[in-house]
Amino acid sequence: MSQFLLVLVSGVASGAVYGLMGLGLVIIYRATDVVNFAMASLATLGLYVAVSLRDQGVATVLGIVAAVTITVVAGLLVRETVIRPLGQGQLFSALVVTMGVSLVVENVASSIWGDEPKSFPNLVNGTVSWSGAALPVQSLVTIAVAAVAMAVVGYLFARTTLGSAMRAVAENADTARVVGLGAQRLARIAWALGLGLAALAACLYAPRSGLVPTALVAPLFRAFAGIFLGGLTSMYGAVVGGLTVGVLDNLAANYASASLRDTFVFSFTVLVLLIRPQGIFGTRTFQRV
Amino acid sequence: MRKFRRAAGTTAVLAVVALTANACAEQDSAGAGGNSSEIHIGAWLPTTGATASYGVPQKAGADAYFKMINASGGINGRKIRWTVKDNAADPQQTVQIARELVGQDKVVAIVNANGTSQAEAAFPFVLNQSKVPVLNEVGGNESWFEPPRPGLFGTQTLYEDQAAAIAAWTVQDGAKKILVVHSDPAAFVNVAKQVEPVAKKGDPSVEVDRLTVKYQTTDYTPVISKVKAAKTQAVVIILTSPEAAAFLKEAKLQGLSLPMYAYAPVAAESTVSLAKDAAEGLKAVQLVKAPSDSDPAVKEFRTAMAKYEPKQPAGFLALWGWSNAKVFAEIAKTIKGPVTADAINKAYEKATKVDTGVSPVMNFSPSNHLGTRSVQRVVVKDGVWTSEGDFYTPPKRG
């Protein structure tokens, strides 16, 4: 039982990270029709800044704030300089551009900070005993921070005027513009929010993995699996999908095979998509031909 | 008609001269790079890309050695010019670089390059077509040296022999039940498979199991659960350095305290910096002595690094580069006359008792192109890799 609890908590903590990244991807995608492949590398840039600050003696929490800020600023720069000029609805062009940006940012990080793995500090150390299992406090904090961030985003979209405006833009940017909503301003806010969530997720993930320029490729991959599982357009779907991927990944490694964890998770995702192509929470769209 | 014949004759003579000159030039390409004032050698190294964390320190270590030896007059009065080109760990790019190094730069040998698949991509052009030797490559596998290939010489104990050394060590420490935790790519599986036969040779009653883990796993919680469930007495880790660090951290978190052993890629500074106190007591085998040793040869390395490559830490990988450079220099010193590809091949085949002071003593012969099977045992003590005893040769495999 204690072993199951340990594996479950660890899976939920990993899933929370994938869920946060997935949420960021969905927010940006819904607001601007851009699948942002550069999100992970931009967040890595933020992590490197946080590590540099830590090396200068700055507190970890301030480093995390700096990481989020840097990621958001870098992301907005990318949007304004290379994504916005493409125009609205250029899904595939934007996809390729964000992939290119991702490679450039990884190379920049590599040339500034090198490729030697660096450690990223835990927010908290130690364990908590529960039902005979020694649960890492860092995992519990990861789950709590991710839950709070998700709740705030949920509140923002459900209960505030800004959230309603962003939902309106997501539904139809042209109509939103007609009724006086500044689509570009809202798009910038969506990018800032999405990248901020990604940076937060990165700060929660990095203590476990260490930091190299490509450190966040694996969680981004799983976040994508999560959002397709949950439904590309659904924020709830991104969170539930990410959590499902994280938990299944760990359960498969523990009870099936540690080498087939990915195979298990992605087979499950494919199976779900065969039954519900729009994902668990996604909305099926129809196009007139 | 006569004019035509004369013109045709002149053309034929010119053609013969041109062809002869070209043939001479081709024949000479393998001997190029050696003149009276310098020995021009080259290498492909990943100084950018996924494995740059290996290539950059390796280059710095070798650079420090070559700068030091050039400052003291070079080899028999000849300075070493080491031209390094970044292949970003890409085999296709390596082939292009090999063509540049051999065809344009006219290097006399490829020395201290990096990467198994990258080198294999370049072998047809470099070794077979151009007859330029490839020496002291970081990487490689058994097929490179069994049977020996003309022009290919190695200085790195094979990963399989490293596994054999670990197996002997665990048995020597009294473990009766050993679990080998390894990544799933074939290169890791092959190394992991070498543990059992050697362990059983040491003690037939030893049980050895293997636990395969997905490559680049970061969440080791379920893996450690499995290790605990296996009720083993020792764990052998055949993972990358960041994976090993994640494994060790999770093991400490879950209170798993078993003797743990690893092969050379884990015996890196990054494992300690990532795992911190969770790495304490980790045992591993290495290709060189620990860079913190008080040994005079290691001290010389640290001094040269501080002088010539002050920005690069004097760690294991830099010491690999240093050691490989020194092996080349020690063998090149024995060459009397022009340093050509052929002369280098002959010198390597005759080279015995090549002692760099930092790596095992190398012995080559016409039938043995791999200089050593020995390793150095190292242990993490107070957060630093420390050598244990002298170089050790593991029992024969198979």
TrEMBL record, chain A:
Keywords per UniProt: Amino-acid transport, Cell membrane, Membrane, Transmembrane, Transmembrane helix, Transport
TM annotation in the entry: 6-27, 34-51, 57-79, 91-113, 133-158, 189-207, 227-251
CDD domains in the record: TM_PBP1_LivH_like (cd06582)
Pfam families: BPD_transp_2
Subcellular location: Cell membrane
InterPro entries: ABC_transp_permease, BCAA_transport_permease
Mode of membrane association: Multi-pass membrane protein
Domain of life: Bacteria
Family membership: Belongs to the binding-protein-dependent transport system permease family. LivHM subfamily.
Protein name, entry field: Branched-chain amino acid transport system permease protein
